[in-house]
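pinning this so it doesn't scroll away 📌
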Amino acid sequence: MDEKELKIRTKEFAHRCVKLALALPTSILGNHIKGQLIRSSTSVASNYRAVCIAHSKASFVSKLSIVIEEADESAFWLNFITDEQLMSKERILPLLKEAEELTSIFIASRKTARGFK
């Protein structure tokens, strides 16, 4: 998967998470998770764009680490939604799978950039 495809994929992930977050119940917990999921998922997309214009290998790895953390945090919030039974697992599962796949892709990229096998 190339840079252009990942830019599209991360942006689509953010859009899908925002739509799901906006459908959460209006409650103290729902509102909290809504904000957290919107922040973390949009951060995946915006920080990946920063990765693409990094000026050094160290900057690339550092920014990629942020993308990994935010994708993993998005997965956490998606799991939390199902744990709290705020939405059905069936509705969450496709986004959770995407969060986990993106996390794996970016971990592999970071390992490659660092020269690990």
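📌 and the second one:
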Amino acid sequence: MTFIDRKRSEGRKEVSFLDRIGFVPDPQQAAVLAADPDRLILACSRQWGKSTLAAARAVQLVWTVPRSLVYVVSAVGPQSGELLRKAEVFLERLGVPFRGDGNHRLSIELPNGSRIVGVPGVEVSTRGYTVDMLIVDEAAKIDDEVYYAVGAGLATTNGKLWLLSTPYGKRGFFWREWNRAGWTRVAVPATECPRISAAFLEQQRESMGPAWFSQEYLCQFLDNGTGVFDRGLVERSVRGDVSPLVLTELAA
């Protein structure tokens, strides 16, 4: 079953899954859903709709695959809760009953035994799960050790791994994975989002200044500002053809 159902039945167009949940994606969101990548790293502007997009894909999975588990990790609990609330709305539109799973405060369990579980990024609470889809929301704000711990949950399922975030400097696993092969990488600046007006962006640019605006709305990976020198300057200064300086002990 493809995510966007375009089949015909008895001469009539079937109602697609997206129609049933009432989600009308913009062209870039629709492209992500149609591709349905197993490894997605999405660097997007604030308010682009990454949580809505991920919630739609999570609901499609748990609705169609019995006893599947979608695990949502975020920097803080409220972020996971927001994605789960969107999933609940989609399930209500599908007419699918759900409840909490009885073990997690942020959780959804369907009659077919499938679950969506949301947790904050605390390493000790994220071990020991076998998951069919792992969504890491605001991934740039999550510690590396949490990412490494939850990633093991995909070892036996070969499930989906979606990293969603606005960039937050040239640091951490989100930045490193963005620069590695094997990922479907999508960058969506606010200037390409039809729901964000040019007037609003200009107000934000004036208020935040060029650096913060470039990071939050233009999806640029910038230095975090904690170093004395610019990262690019340091990297351009490194050479591999210089022998290391060896200090010998001075005679007394």
